[in-house]
């Protein structure tokens, strides 16, 4: 029995890495194909998790349109699927890679499993691709691995039968625990972490910032930067911002925040360095999905620069707060946490406990025997 895992971006790689290693321990044959919808940021993750893809489609190009990328994925993945003829293709989440590869597999009569299935905003606002990518993938998939009860409920409401849904928790928590275990070893040393220790003053509260969503490009990032400038006037704070490589994000952030006191703009860091940064931080400001899932396990509050989230569990449990991209709201939310946060009452992470990959592999082992 053979499974082909296909992904293309940094977060997918982080979330599929533990599953790949778990599958390798099983009797199922597993291969990896990367579309490389991201390049450098994907490679950082492949290196850390010691993954050498069997196929690398190398499709990233500056300024390519989603339609151009989709067309290239269709053509290239068709070749790979035709050669490999896997019994199952596993895709992840909500990227263009996931939805197009799922459809290509369907066209060839190959079964599809969807990891991190069932997340929804039901806000299908064009041209932002995530929500439609996840909905398309749900329509095609034969097995749905959901991270939470809410995600399972979403799929049931859409008419997907319980028999085809497996609730597992999110594999990102497996990746996080694996990484923490590694970086907390006494003899672990990492160049990027050493460099971060050198540039970050030990006596200040770290505000860690990331952002990449298309819906925030333009006014959203502009407002975020203005808010960070205001917060950086505080003497007790240092803002650390690994800036996404998308030029539409990078250009505005560098223009507004370069060479400012109490603000460190850095390039995206490797996963272990980012996990280390999250551990050191006082709070995190982000539009990222994965970070909303990871932060509760580290006891860090998250301010989400979005007005909706397909991850309501963290908001409901009080781990994250949706503030959108209004400058004043971002400033107030940051100040409030800096001045008043004393820790969470219950550290139970609603996104998982580190066993998701094992649950998926247990299911797949029986699925193939049955
Ligand atoms: N991350 C990383 N290096 C960074 C910034 C983030 O390794 O410089 C990790 C982070 O821990 C999380 C993932 O990348 O697991 C989030 O990726 P992103 O925000 O690009 O995508 P999303 O989570 O929104 O899908």
Automatic annotation (TrEMBL):
Q: Does the keyword Acyltransferase apply?
A: no
One GO MF term attached to the UniProt entry = UDP-N-acetylglucosamine 2-epimerase activity
Pfam families membership: Epimerase_2
SUPFAM superfamilies under this entry?
UDP-Glycosyltransferase/glycogen phosphorylase
Q: Which CDD domains match?
A: GTB_UDP-GlcNAc_2-Epimerase (cd03786)
Enzyme Commission identifier(s): 5.1.3.14
Name the domain of life.
Answer: Bacteria
Residue ranges constituting the UDP-N-acetylglucosamine 2-epimerase domain according to the UniProt record? 22-364
Report keywords, A-Z. Isomerase
NCBIfam families assigned? wecB
Hey, which family's this protein in?
Answer: Belongs to the UDP-N-acetylglucosamine 2-epimerase family.
Q: What is this protein called?
A: UDP-N-acetylglucosamine 2-epimerase (non-hydrolyzing)
Q: Which organism is it from?
A: Flavobacterium fluvii
Q: What is the lineage of its organism?
A: Bacteria, Pseudomonadati, Bacteroidota, Flavobacteriia, Flavobacteriales
